[in-house]
Amino acid sequence: MTRTCHLNCIIPPHILEKLLRSDESEVRQAALDTLLTTSRLRGERGVRASFAGAAAAPGGGQRTVFDCKNRTFLLSAVLARSEDGAESADGSVNRAFDGLGATRDFYRTVFNRNSIDGHGMRLNAFVHFGKKFNNAFWDGQQMVFGDGDGRMFSDFTGSVDVIGHELAHGVTENTAGLEYHNQSGALNESMSDVFGSLVKQWSLRQSADEADWLIGPEIFTPGIDADALRSMKAPGHAYDNDLFGMDPQPDNMENYVRLPDTEMGDFGGVHINSGIPNKAFFLAALRIGGFAWEAPGLIWYESLKASHSETQFQEFANTTYRKAAELFGDDSAEQLAVLAAWQDVGIQISGILAGVARARSLAANRSGGPGGDSGLATVNQQIGALAAQVTGLAKDVTALKSR
């Protein structure tokens, strides 16, 4: 299957657009330079192709970090650290190297996946890209990190979940190939947030209730009043300040944001509407409990592999429900958690009556979490009551027809 490689940036265009309106000329200039460089790179297929052979060649996920020396031409970058090389004196080089390793080891250990493409793809990263470049991106072949402007954003190698997020775009490209616009694009972004957060949680051995569920909290300078770029736990509440405005992410389908399918429209709001499936994953993980990379992470990973380029929210929700049953059994704690999570963000699993879904969700919550014996008993009782009501209604309709 042919994959469409896209320039996937961690900083969404709506934030950079806000910065263009800043009263400070330095802030405006940094935002403008970042937008112009990003736009240019989107059109430079040759940049991505230049390293395609080396990046894609099987190598057991070996890492190589290059230093751009504050230039934007990747071919001029110099080797800074290789898999078997010594630690660098440059902190950015070492952080990028370690982040690549943490992500590679996460996929290998948790999902038995051999690097990003599943076939040992080499992992290349470029640091010190451009001057005051306020972004980090995956371009279909490698990771590229800006240093930030020091005023709002710091070095983008400083956040392991940002590295995990960007590399997850490579996983998506090599599995479902989710098209980068509208709902499929928002799912693409959400999968990167999910696995970026899981890489961090796995590295820190954090349980679902211990994790902060924030994406990129380290990339803001201390002078910026913001928790992170996004919050999976509370979409729409990651930041609210004069520079960026208020976090626009919705956490429910009733607030889905419709934007133009253009670069400045964030290709239909892919960084914005990703808040909806993000919240669903968080809720499922919290209900299941324990380590989020185990049951919920496996369900989402298998669902990604079972998806296709144009998968929408509804179809993906249905797939996670089905995969939960395949992996853990019908009416298992895991499947009930998935059902309740999607229902809470306004997406009803297809083929399940709203009343039945609500009864299952309520029963799961009353039992202190889905899957308890008392919860399942209550669910069965309420399903039986609903079935009796449906039967009674059917008889009434038959009687009316006969009249």
UniProtKB/TrEMBL annotation:
Domain Peptidase M4 C-terminal: 176-347
UniProt key word Protease: yes
EC number(s) reported in the record: 3.4.24.-
CDD domains (alphabetical): M4_TLP (cd09597)
GO molecular function annotation: metal ion binding; metalloendopeptidase activity
A single cellular component GO annotation: extracellular region
Cofactor: Zn(2+)
Presence of the UniProt keyword Protease in the record: yes
Domain annotation Peptidase M4: ranges: 99-173
SUPFAM superfamilies documented for this protein: Metalloproteases ('zincins'), catalytic domain
Protein role: Extracellular zinc metalloprotease.
Family: Belongs to the peptidase M4 family.
Protein name: Neutral metalloproteinase
